[in-house]
Design brief:
Elements: H1 7-14, H2 55-68, E1 72-76, H3 79-87, E2 95-99, H4 104-114, E3 120-124, H5 129-135, E4 140-146, H6 158-167, E5 171-175, H7 180-183, E6 193-197, E7 211-215, H8 221-231, H9 237-269, E8 274-278, H10 288-294, E9 301-306, H11 309-319, E10 324-325, E11 335-338, H12 339-343, E12 353-357, H13 363-373
Parallel strand pairs: 2-3, 2-4, 4-5, 5-6, 10-11
Antiparallel strand pairs: 1-7, 6-7, 8-9, 9-12, 11-12
This protein binds pyridoxal-5'-phosphate (PLP).
Pyridoxal-5'-phosphate binds near residues 78, 80, 103, 175 and 178.
């Protein structure tokens, strides 16, 4: 189409394809693992074997590319598989900067697995630019950002840090899971790669695992495609179909969830039983100005520190009725989680911190639930 479409429209159109057999509007799921070869040896439809490519994965990759304004997208079977593929582009002796409060499995993957292969990592508070400057060395090849971070919602300045990385020839990758492409587009802010756990807001209903990397240009395309096809951590056609279905309603869901999260954060900030609220949309948030500069909305995740320590925080999770106590995030139902007990004793997450994923329930019901639980 020659007309320039708005993001909401593009999200829907990019998840549709014309089914040449039946004209189906909802894309069929192509379960076939292998595809027929012509007598001349060619593949009429371009598919050979489902690990290498299949119509549903191609659709999802096209859609992810649209959402993040990228050059190419590469889909994986989970967010961690996508992260792992990015780390696989490194070489022994390379140095990586990772946020000191990065998602704990990202840290684990880098230290426990890639550390053994000679990749060195420095943990950095990415919300303090001077700390980034002093941690960068001439061996640094990758600066990894997670903004907002999990679970303390620190914000890092994507443009400023990407500039620092580029100045020494390193790449900047952003885990954009918490913000989604609706909240911010790291590639447009200067990053080279975006990683998503599509398990979260993109799938949106807590029923599918997935991940994706979107690249700004073709520099790492071949390596990442190789990693996808040869390592084999690929999403099934049904997984891709479910994520594409989630993408169709992503804008509407995420905007509504963000609106509720802002109201809930403001309410909790004023509550006498709450010590601190971590939400980048609050003017009290230490990096609120950076958040305002680079985000279109402040997301639907927040965390709170409850007065009275770990015991009180755990008791509150037991009293909340509309926030299911469970891990993960980004679905239509609200969740709450005591993070420290998930991350382990060595984690720097405060003992009294509860992480909240705001769903699509009515905001007044959610606020009432906290009012009762904190009494
Ligand atoms: C910020 C962030 N990145 C990556 C992941 C990993 O994604 P997955 O569980 O799909 O492997 C998660 C999962 O919670 C996450 O919150």
């Amino acid at each position: 189409m020659s007309r320039k479409l708005r993001p909401e429209t593009r999200a829907i159109r990019s998840t549709m394809m014309t089914d040449s057999n039946a004209g189906a509007v909802s894309v069929p799921i192509t379960l076939s693992t292998n595809f027929e070869r012509e007598a001349d040896g060619s593949y009429q439809h371009g598919y050979i074997y489902s690990r290498l490519d299949n119509p549903n994965r191609q659709q999802l990759e096209k859609s992810m590319c649209e959402l993040e304004s990228g050059h190419v997208a590469i889909a994986f079977s989970s967010g961690m598989a996508a992260t792992s593929a990015i780390f696989q582009t490194l070489e022994p002796g390379d140095h990586v900067l990772l946020p000191d409060d990065a998602y704990y499995s990202t840290k684990d993957l880098m230290v426990e697995l890639f550390g053994k292969w000679g990749i060195n990592m420095s943990p950095v508070n990415m919300s303090v630019i001077d700390e980034v400057k002093s941690a960068i060395t001439n061996r640094t090849k990758l600066v990894w950002l997670e903004t907002p971070s999990n679970p303390q919602l620190r914000i890092s300045d994507i443009t400023a840090i990407a500039d620092l990385a580029h100045a020494i020839g390193a790449k900047c990758a952003v885990d954009n899971t918490w913000s989604t492409p609706i909240g911010q587009n790291p590639l447009l802010l200067g990053a080279d790669m975006v990683m998503h756990s599509t398990t979260k807001y993109l799938g949106g209903h807590g029923d599918v695992l997935g991940g994706a990397v979107v690249l700004k240009d073709d520099e790492l395309e071949e390596l990442l495609r190789k990693s996808q096809q040869v390592s084999g951590a690929v999403p099934s056609p049904f997984d891709c179909w479910l994520i594409c279905r989630g993408i169709k309603t992503l804008h509407t869901r995420f905007k509504a969830q963000m609106e509720t999260a802002e109201k809930l954060a403001t309410y909790l900030e004023g509550h006498k039983e709450i010590e601190t609220v971590h939400y980048p949309g609050l003017t009290s948030h230490a990096q609120h100005d950076v958040a305002k500069k680079q985000m279109r909305g402040f997301g639907a995740m927040l965390s709170v520190q409850v007065k009275g320590g770990a015991e009180r925080a755990l008791a509150v999770t037991g009293k909340l009725e509309l926030f299911t106590t469970a891990t993960s995030l980004g679905g239509v139902e609200s969740l709450v989680e005591h993070r420290k007990s998930i991350e382990g004793e060595e984690s720097s997450t405060p003992d009294n911190l509860l992480r909240v994923s705001v769903g699509l329930e009515h905001v007044d019901d959610l606020i009432e639930d906290w009012e009762i639980a904190l009494n």
